[in-house]
TrEMBL record:
GO terms for biological process: phosphoenolpyruvate-dependent sugar phosphotransferase system. Mg(2+) binds at residues 419, 443. Pfam families: PEP-utilisers_N, PEP-utilizers, PEP-utilizers_C. It catalyses: L-histidyl-[protein] + phosphoenolpyruvate = N(pros)-phospho-L-histidyl-[protein] + pyruvate. Residues 250-528 form the PEP-utilising enzyme C-terminal domain. It is found in: Cytoplasm. It comes from Bifidobacterium tsurumiense. Its cofactor is Mg(2+). This is Phosphoenolpyruvate-protein phosphotransferase. Coiled coil: none annotated.
Length: 550
């Protein structure tokens, strides 16, 4: 039997299944004993919340010391810790305790109420609802005095099967024991998928049949390239899977060479990084520069914006690692799934469609101009080729505004991200005012197809293989090539080796991805000439590689 899902990357793994532990039993709704005061129960809740927050913050610190993928989980874990300290959540739980609920039941209902509220908002906030559920389970487990649900322990390597994985669980996976992960929920751009790809974990998500078909001890082959899980494979199938793993390992032999097609057409391969210290794995995997540096780490967890001096130091630290090489830094992308208390409104009805990215920065000019000033100073101190871009730009007017402002601060290369479908429709005008465009395919896909990237039920829409998404990318690439404006892709699509070939054929000039994906993408590009890549792109644009039934 073969279970279909959505593959992450193209790795292959063989091993026995271990299922994620069942959720905690639901706390009783019976009134608490009269001898137990509300004050006593509320103190218990506060202690558990504080303990969970401390644990999540400790996990975040540990993640920063781990591999590149684990580092990417750090800001997510910090955000989870902030959830545990939400005053509104605490007030809600207190009200439930005051009307006679036990600490455990009050925590359950308090978290559930907030989860429902976030789920109703959809988009990024629905994604945070799943994260909030994980925090709630940890708090309830602490109140019950039992271990929190999490990744099972095993002396032998295993394939982990779960409904879904929280960022905390994904970040803490033992890479020596976890052969692969299979989740019933999730999509290709969910936190689980992104962190799995960043850590180089073989994964298949949105495999709905896994819930009934995979039990502890079941032998499986997880084939991410095919998006399949083979159940109880034969010895011949296992041997073929092992051979596929050996072939994949050969991709490392091209490390250090520039990204290029078979005919020599250069397609620079860059790395997505989240902190200056992430330069190490980027260089290790042969990145030719940085295609996306996320500047949010300087702002998350703070009560006020970092100083210009603090920012300058961090940017200069990164730039100094790439002398003579291209480094693209994204301006602060606050809002939606990255709220900041000193920038984003707390009661925005639909944050994913509200003040986010450049819209937020324009509402806080001190932050916008301070970051641009810091970038200009860091550029003057180093020899890297600095490119700066604004996120969530909707049209040529916003593009022109940001480019002029950046140039007025002394920056040489100023461009925008293409994540909103509207920018593809006016790409010809954007190409006349911006120095470059970088396409963020995660959000472009989500907004183009109106499909929440965290929901397994619409996972077949959460793919940049959809012809509508590819045609939007082509509009931007065509406009760029016609006007001499470079166009890159820095979303998860760039890390898909097959899709990377299509993007090259469409006319994208560079690709940026998590460092562990560089080997496979470099090897796949080298198999095709530009004419062959264009032919594959034409087929993809025609929908030949997209099956809505999957």
């Amino acid at each position: 039997m073969v279970i279909k899902g959505v593959g992450i990357g193209r790795g292959v793994a063989v091993g026995p299944v271990i299922r994620m532990a069942a959720p905690l039993p639901e706390p009783s709704d019976a009134p608490r004993a009269e001898s137990v005061s509300a004050e006593h129960e509320f103190e218990r809740v506060k202690k558990s919340l504080a303990k969970v927050q401390e644990d999540l913050n400790a996990r975040a610190e540990a993640a920063l010391q781990g591999d590149d993928g684990a580092k990417q989980a750090a800001p997510i874990l910090q955000a989870l810790g902030q959830m545990a300290a939400d005053p509104a959540l605490l007030d809600s739980i207190k009200n439930l305790v005051d009307v006679g609920k036990s600490a455990e039941r009050a925590a359950l209902e308090g978290f559930a109420g907030f989860e429902q509220m976030l789920t109703a908002l959809g988009g990024y906030m629905a994604e945070r609802a799943g994260d909030l559920h994980d925090v709630g389970q940890r708090v309830i487990a602490d109140l019950m005095g039992v271990p929190a649900p999490g990744v099972p322990q095993s002396d032998k390597p295993f394939v982990l099967v779960a409904d879904d994985l929280s960022p905390a669980d994904t970040a803490s996976l033992d890479m020596n024991k976890t052969l692969a992960i299979v989740t019933i929920q999730g999509g290709p751009t969910s936190h689980t998928a992104i962190l799995a790809r960043a850590r180089g974990i073989v994964a298949v998500v949105s495999a709905s049949e896994a819930e009934e078909q995979l039990q502890d001890g079941t032998m499986v082959i997880v084939n991410a390239a095919q998006g399949e899980v083979a159940v109880d494979p034969s010895e011949d199938e296992i041997a073929q899977a092992e051979e596929a793993r050996a072939q994949a390992a050969k991709a490392k032999e091209l490390r250090g060479r520039p990204g290029a097609l078979k005919d020599g057409t250069l397609i620079p391969l860059l790395a997505n990084v989240g902190k200056p210290k992430d330069a190490d794995p980027a260089l290790e995997y042969g990145a030719e520069g940085v295609g996306l540096f996320r500047s949010e780490f300087l702002f998350i967890g703070n009560s006020e914006p970092p100083s210009v001096e603090e920012q300058t130091k961090a940017y200069a630290e990164l730039l100094s690692r790439f002398p003579g090489r291209k480094v693209v830094i994204r301006m602060l992308d606050a809002g939606a799934d990255k709220p900041l208390p000193f920038l984003t409104p707390e009661d925005e009805p639909n944050p994913a469609l509200g003040l986010r990215g450049l819209r937020t920065l324009k509402a806080h000019m001190n932050v916008l101009e301070g970051q641009l000033e810091a970038l200009a100073r860091a550029d003057a101190q180093t020899d890297a080729d600095l490119w700066v871009m604004a996120p969530m730009v909707a049209d040529e007017h916003e593009a022109e505004y940001f480019v002029k402002l950046g140039k007025s601060k002394g920056l040489k290369k100023v461009g925008v991200m293409a994540e909103v479908p509207s920018i593809a429709l006016v790409a010809d005008k954007v190409a006349k005012v911006a120095d470059f465009v970088s396409i963020g395919t995660n959000d472009l896909t989500q907004y183009t197809l109106a499909a929440d990237r965290t929901l397994g039920s619409v996972a077949n829409y959460q793919t940049a293989w959809h012809p509508a998404v590819l045609r939007a990318i082509k509009l931007i690439a065509d406009a760029g090539n016609a006007n001499g404006m470079p166009v890159g892709v820095c979303g998860e699509a760039a890390a898909d080796p097959d899709l990377a070939v299509v993007l090259a054929g469409i006319g994208v000039n560079s690709l940026s991805m998590t460092p562990v994906a560089l080997d496979d993408v470099r090897a796949e590009l080298a198999k095709y000439t530009m004419e062959e890549a264009k032919a594959k792109a034409e087929a993809a644009l025609d929908g030949q590689f997209y099956n809505p039934a999957e």
